[in-house]
Structures are given as C-alpha cells and as structure tokens.
Amino acid sequence: MDPRSMRSREALRRAALDLAAARPLAELSVSEVCRAAGVTRDTFYRHADAPVSLVADALSVELADVLAGVGELDSLSTAEALLLAHVKGRADVYRGALHPSLAAPIRAVLERVITSGLEEWLERHPEIEPPAIADLPSREIAVAYAAGGTVAAIEAWLRSGADDVTWATRAILAASPEWWLR
Questions:
Q1: Do 117 and 63 meet the contact criterion of CB atoms below 8 Å apart?
Q2: Peptide linkage before 131 cis (omega within 30 of 0)
Q3: DSSP states of 49-118 as a string?
Q4: What tens digit of pLDDT does each residue of 143-167 get?
Q5: For residues 9 and 157, what is the distance between their CA atoms, to the nearest angstrom?
Q6: CB of 158 closer than 8 Å to CB of 95
Q7: Beta bridge partners of 98
Q8: Is the domain 3-51 a CATH 3.10.20.30 member?
Q9: What share of the chain is helix, strand, coil (3-state, %, to 5)?
Q10: Residue 113 · residue 63 · CB < 8 Å
C-alpha cells in the first residue's frame, strides 16, 4: 500500500474509533467519519464498506499488537488479562457496539483473535490437549467453543458495566475447562 493510502486508512481508523467512543456505533455515518478523517467518500469506500467495518479493522490492528506472541506467555491467564485490558481501554467503543450483542464485524474480530491465540497456545503446549480432542475436527470445535464463550463472557462483562480486569479474567478462566489451564 502506498504511503498516502496508508495515511488515509490510519486517519479513517482513528476517526472511526474516536466517533465510536462518543456514541453508539450504529449511529455513525460515512459522512461524519469522512469529515473527521479529512477524506472524501470515495477514499472511505476504498478502505471500508461501512463505519462498523472500519472500527472492526482498527480494533483488529490494536488486538494484533496486544496479543502478539501469546504462545510465548507464561500462562493463559496473562493472555486473557491482556485481552481484557484492551477491551477495558476501549470499553466505550465496545459498549457502543452492543445491540445487545456485539456488532457482527467486531464480534468476528474478537473471535478470530482469540481463536488464533488459542491455536498458538495449543501448538506451543501440546501436553495440555486431552486425547478426546487430539484430532483436527475435535480441536477446531474445542477452540471455537472456547473463543465463542470468551466473546460471550466479554459481552456480559461489558453489559454489566464492570471494569475490573482481574475479576473478569478469573471469572472467564473459572468457566473454562481445566485442561486449558494446565
């Protein structure tokens, strides 16, 4: 991507996140994102199809930075705490995307990031994997179940108004199958 296009994309991401932090995501318009970013509608549509897609893209970039190298961490609870600290830091954006569940593109970003992290965790720690999920389809089901459940738990945490990362980390891990934590 050329430098000008990269600057436009970054300006759009920043504008969309700033606006989404101020009010519900469903209320954002392409026109106001363009005004805030200082770009044309044509430029907007070269980078996204809707404000929610732009917010999801921006969150995806942030999450990739936050959770880079999750498999190298000392525990899954550290990775969970990093994820929840990100959500807490962007709570206004995430809460503005609840209707009552997260908007589909944002939910998909979280599930994709969590799935990737869990897959990396299993690759680095094969000794924790129970024999019942040692084959590929079973492993995919276990990872999908854990990722979907984690996102649902994050939604419940956001709806509750709570912001204690340590408490939420403990609650999510307590609900997880014990073998993930070995």
A1: no
A2: no
A3: SSHHHHHHHHHHHHHHHHTTTGGGSS-HHHHHHHHHHHHHHTHHHHHHTBSSSBPHHHHHHHHHHHHHHH
A4: 999 999 999 999 999 999 999 999 9
A5: 31
A6: yes
A7: 102
A8: no
A9: 80, 0, 20
A10: yes
Dihedral pair phi/psi, residue 164, rounded to 5°: -85, 105
CB 111 within 8 A of CB 148: yes
pLDDT tens-place string over residues 119-130: 988 988 899 999
Whole-angstrom Cα distance, residue 175 to residue 182? 14
For the chain, the structural domain boundaries read 3-51, 67-181
Asked whether the whole model's pTM tops 0.90, one would answer: yes
Whether residue 133 has pLDDT greater than 80? yes
Exposure string of 53-72, with b = 16+ CB inside 10 Å and e = fewer, is: ebbbbbbbebbeebbeebbe
Least confident range of 43-47, 68-72, 111-115: 68-72
DSSP character at residue 180: G
